[in-house]
Amino acid sequence: MEHVEELWPGGFRLISDDRHFKLGTDSAMLAAFPALSAGCRVCDLGCGTGVLPILMSARCPDLRIDGIDIQESALSLAARNIALNGLADSVRLIRADLRNPEELPEAGSYDLAVSNPPYFPKNSGFSKAEDTIAEARDDRSCTVTEVCAAASRLVRWGGRFAVVFRPERLVDLFWAMRLHGIEPKRLRMVRHRSGGPVSLILAEGRRGGKPGLKLERDLVLLHPDGTETDEVKAIYRRKQN
Questions:
Q1: Mean pLDDT of the 127-137 span
Q2: Confidence at 134, pLDDT banded by 50, 70, 90
Q3: What highest taxon heads this organism's lineage (predicted)?
Q4: Which is nearest to 26 in space by CA: 186, 164, 229, 120?
Q5: At the topology level of CATH, where does 2-235 sit?
Q6: 134, 195, 145: which is closest to 171 by C-alpha?
Q7: Per-residue confidence band for 136, with pLDDT thresholds at 50, 70 and 90
Q8: With 80 as the cut, is the pLDDT of residue 107 above it?
Q9: Which of these, 19, 52, 65, 93, has the minimum number of CB atoms within 10 Å of its CB?
Q10: DSSP characters for 85-147?
Q11: pLDDT score recorded for residue 157
Q12: Local structure of residue 166 (DSSP, 8 states)
C-alpha cells in the first residue's frame, strides 16, 4: 500500500510503499552529515526510493545528484518522488549493479558518494525473507566492501564518502574503506539518549586521504524526558521552542 507524507510542514513530500524501506532515522541523519556546497556532484549508492537525494536537495538546492540502485521497483518509485518534488533537473536515476564497474558512471565523476548500505551479512538471522526489503537489509546483493569499492571508483581523488552503519560492524566498514583507498576521517556516534548505547554510526572518509580520524560529539536524539533534542528538530525541520 502506498502513502504520501509531508517530510516537514510545507516541504518536500515522499511517496512510500510497504514493499520498500520508508524514511528512517538512519537516512535523515546521513543526509544531514556531510558538508554540502553549490555545484557539488553527489552519487547515492543504493538510492532506493530516493530519500537521500530529496533530503540533500532540501539542504542544498544546487547539487547534482545521481541515485544508483539495482531494484527496478525502487527506482520506479524514486522517479515518482523526484518528479513530485520538482527535482528532475538536478537528480538523475541510474539502474546499475554496484558490483559491476561497467554499469557505473565514469570513474572520478563525483565529489561525494553517500550510502545507507545493507547492515547485516547474508544468513545472519536478521533478514530471511526473499523480498525487496530483505535485499536492502542484508548484503545478499552487495556487501559493504563492494559498496566501498564502488565509492572509491566513482569519487575523484580527494573526494569524500559518507555512510551510516551499525556500530557493531564499524571495524568491517573501516577495513573495507581502507582496502579501497578511502581513509576514515570523521566518525560520529548516534544515541537515542545521552549515555545510552550507540544505535548508529556516521562515518566519512576521503579517497587518498592521510591517516587521522576525528571523533565528533555524539548526535543525541532525545532528552531524558523523551522530547527531541534541538539538533534533531533542526534535521527534521520541526519547530523549536
A1: 49
A2: very low
A3: Bacteria
A4: 164
A5: Rossmann fold (3.40.50)
A6: 145
A7: very low
A8: yes
A9: 19
A10: TT-TTTEEEEE--TT-GGGSPPTT-EEEEEE----B-TTSSS----SHHHHHHBTTS--HHHH
A11: 98
A12: -
Three cell numbers written together for 210 = 592521510
Do residues 4 and 14 make contact, with C-beta atoms less than 8 angstroms apart?
yes
Question: Cα 159–164–167 angle (5° rounding)?
Answer: 125
Q: How far is CA 159 from CA 90, 122, 168, 208, 224, in A?
A: 20, 30, 26, 8, 38
In the structure, how many helices (H) and strands (E) does the chain have? 7, 11
pLDDT value at 48 more than 50? yes
The C-alpha cell that represents 100 in the structure block? 559491476
pTM: 0.90
Query: Which of 238, 3, 20 shows the shortest CA–CA distance to 116?
Result: 20
Q: What confidence score (pLDDT) does residue 133 get?
A: 46
Q: Is the distance from CB of 127 to CB of 120 less than 8 angstroms? A: yes
Q: Which residue has the higher pLDDT, 213 or 118?
A: 213
Asked if residues 189 and 201 have their Cβ atoms less than 8 Å apart, the reply is yes
Residue 119 grid coordinates: 547492515
**In terms of Cα–Cα distance, which of 93, 92, 39 is closest to 61?**
39
How many residues are there in the chain?
A: 241
CA distance 143 to 39: 30
Sign of the C-alpha dihedral computed for residues 58, 2, 74 and 126 taken in this order? positive
| Type of residue numbered 140 | R
